[in-house]
């Protein structure tokens, strides 16, 4: 990983800065403090005996490790001072099979700690880039991933952190290691560097280091291999049929079998303790439901189809209950338990302050609209009860991500103020099939920008939305699209834009970003030497002179994924062209604004800016 620069914070503007309007009123009982008040429990894993769950809890500017009983009760804190991490970047904690230890990742090291409490201990002094710990069945050894240059391979160490055994060579990006129940083999997923759209399932014999590719096809991703409890089969998901469906590989015969044909992306697969069922999540157009597949009669069962975001379903040892995480647009994330025989659901954590019971929260509409080239684009539409005439287009990050039916308190706050918001799942988004996900390959910032411009047309056509009072806000790739939408639109649909750590120059970003960002660009846009025209066409830095609307820019100065120099480059170009902008950096933030004081500053500045130019 590139070492980020630690620079002092910057606050700059060109032209008139926005001011807090004298007619500004906080909507009802809402406040910026309320937006950031939720302490999110997440990334949970049940203990081997099912008596406890381990999870991370985002609170007090930390993402520390906690344990609590599966029967309910107050969580017990195990770690202190683990820095805040975005939940989508964090490795889950891992119980040792004997229940005596929990392994977790912190500062690119693997640590272990007893669930009863104690001093955590690092077991990877030999690595500066370790992750994804997985216990061997004997609870004495652990598998882990190790980054070295552009490669990721698998190592094995013990509880003492002894010099590791190399499990796989440096040939690609190895991930998701899973030891067999008999401790003889490891199955894992590998992304070869010569085909970044491909992921293979590989089997390794731990005794003789024999490697065998079980599943591998050009341009196809095969992910999340999971051993059956008897060690005879491996379940995995594959997008070879356009959507991620569940497949089964039989080790004795070498035969593959497609189990599901849902026509939706399935994920988070897990075997039942008796090996007769698989549970998973089902992505139905941004609503993530719980599903189950029975191998006894090959039936597909919907366990919970409440329209929200179910995540990380995990079996308890009795085979009768599972735990899972859930949130939706009106309910923050918590951890739950469901009895599969009675369908009774119990809530284990309680993150929602009582004040939310007295607020009017908006459930978005699942809509679609036609983009400028005729492609149909799915989106979520939030409509206020008391509209103020302004609208905001809200593209997500990624680009291979998705706006889903999740808890989004900033959206609820803005809707309470009277703003209408449209969150488009522009081409390149996941959840709508492999072809749609890859529809912006080679055309970053062109076709997906058109999807955002068409979103403005759709939102501006609503009776009480004034098309001259439209703004656009996004973070990461969404921030990049916000810049593109101002620079590439001859009709100037947007009266202002807000970008949070967004790219402006794909070529310099490719040169400066970390491995993850570099890989995204190379996979979807090719090497700049082979596709320089597309890199330039997708870089709004070359069209800054065409930007007519004010732009608000945020960036964390420790961001390795979108280099802070991207915002610096943009600001200098805006200054040179005499454009109106405001610029704020945070020296103690990375790819995300996570610290409470910075979140309060960010929301206050963004609200002031949007109110000033849209109301």
How would you characterize the overall build of this protein?
- The chain has 615 residues and is α+β, with helices and mostly antiparallel strands.
- Among the domains are: 40-170, TolB, C-terminal domain (Neuraminidase), CATH 2.120.10.30; 370-614, Alpha/Beta hydrolase fold, catalytic domain (Rossmann fold).
- Helices cover 16% and strands 35% of the residues.
- It contains ten helices and 37 strands.
- The strands form eight sheets. It has a nine-stranded mixed sheet with strand order 1-37-36-35-34-32-33-31-30, sandwiched between helices.
- A hairpin with a 5-residue loop joins strand 10 (130-135) and strand 11 (141-148).
- Helix 4 (447-460) crosses helix 5 and helix 6 packs across helix 7.
- The longest helix is centred in the C-terminal third of the chain and has 19 residues, at 596-614.
- The radius of gyration is 24 Å and the shape is globular.
- The two termini are 43 Å apart.
- Mean pLDDT is 95; it is low at 1-6.
In short:
The protein is an alpha+beta fold and 615 residues long. Helices cover 16% and strands 35% of the residues.
